[in-house]
Amino acid sequence: MQTFEDVAALWQVLADWRREGLRMALVPTMGNLHEGHLRLVDAALQHADRVVATIFVNPLQFGPDEDLARYPRTLADDQRALAERGCDLLFAPAVETLYPEGQEGLTRVSVPQVSQGLCGDHRPGHFDGVATVVSLLFNLTRPDVACFGEKDFQQLAVIRKLVRDQHMPIDIIGVPIARDHDGLALSSRNGYLDRDARTRASQLYQCLADSAQRLERGQDSEAVLTQGRRQLEAAGFRPDYLALCDATTLQPVSTWQPGSVLLAAAWLGNTRLIDNLPCRS
Ligand code: PAF
Predict the structure, then answer these.
(1) What is the pLDDT of residue 26?
(2) In the predicted model, is pLDDT for residue 281 greater than 80?
(3) What percent of the chain has pLDDT over 70?
(4) Residue 180 belongs to some domain of the structure
(5) Whole-number mean pLDDT of the chain?
(6) Catalytic residue numbers, as ranges
(7) In which pathway does it act (predicted)?
(8) What is the rounded CA–CA span in Å between residue 91 and residue 228?
(9) Could you tell me the strand order of the sheet in which 271-278 lies?
(10) Residue of minimum CA distance from atom 6 in ligand 1
(11) pLDDT, tens digit, 9 for 90 and up, residues 43-79
């Protein structure tokens, strides 16, 4: 697997592939890769002839009090894992390469409505930062397909809307959450949890699963969500939200049915975890 930091070298290879008529899938990441990311590569390999991963810790999507400085950077391990999984090329640019004229006057992309509510309320500007870098990466690499994890459910909804609104000829593939043995959704931020917090962390998934069961039994959604928030607090979490929403618009709904999704975000100490459970049948 080749790694490029420069745009010119990347373009050369992409142009060759395009000339050969090869389909290319993009897997954008911020590095510190775990099994969840590697499943994005698996999905990409199923949909394309060549897979390009990107590693870029995007400063635009971090708030002033967030973890940009301490976000784990593990490039050598990531390169090894991507190569073993069959990724063809890694693009890992510096901030100055993607934003050569700085971040202040940079052209921004904003996806209203679906970026609001849920994480959008708790992380102002976050989804504008995501939409800006993702559209920039799409423009740079012009993929046929791009794969994103369903763990960042709102992010995936924002990207799907971005691609629809901009008529981008890119198939967006959502890849189901990879979970640890106790149900905890895999995340780079799980590395921040100490032993006690790690033991409690699986209660976030447990709360979603219990809430889904209560909804399936026909209990009132408001009562279920209130009980779920209490369940999180009892397990030591400070919930940002527990919500039942339409899976496309992310507007609140009151019925648990295919096309709806339970979403949660909650703090354990200084670590913010998110998870979700879509209603599949
Ligand atoms: O999900 C992530 O890792 C990031 O938000 C993404 C999509 C790579 C954009 O920086």
Answers:
(1) 99
(2) no
(3) 100
(4) no
(5) 98
(6) 37
(7) Cofactor biosynthesis; (R)-pantothenate biosynthesis; (R)-pantothenate from (R)-pantoate and beta-alanine: step 1/1
(8) 41
(9) 238-246, 260-268, 271-278
(10) 29
(11) 999 999 999 999 999 999 999 999 999 999 999 999 9
Identify residue 199 by its one-letter amino acid code: T
Q: For position 73, what pLDDT does the model report?
A: 97
Q: Is the CB of 32 under 6 A from ligand 1?
A: no
Compute the residue count for the chain: 281
Residue type (1 letter), 140: L
pLDDT at 105: 97
Extended strands (E) in 13-64 = 24-29, 50-55
The verdict on residue 203 lying in a domain is: yes
Handedness of CA 71, 74, 79, 84 (dihedral sign): negative
Is 189 annotated to bind a ligand? Reply is yes
CATH classification of the domain holding 197: 3.30.1300.10
Tell me the angle at which helices 221-234 and 203-216 cross, rounded to the nearest 10 degrees: 160
Ligand 1 pocket, 135 CB below 6 A?
no
Q: 147 and 30, same structural domain? A: yes
Contact 54, 27 (CB under 8 A): yes
Question: Residue 157 and residue 114: Cα distance in Å, rounded?
Answer: 7
Q: What is the domain range of residue 195?
A: 188-276
> Are 110 and 168 within one domain?
yes
Distance CA 116, CA 127 (A): 9
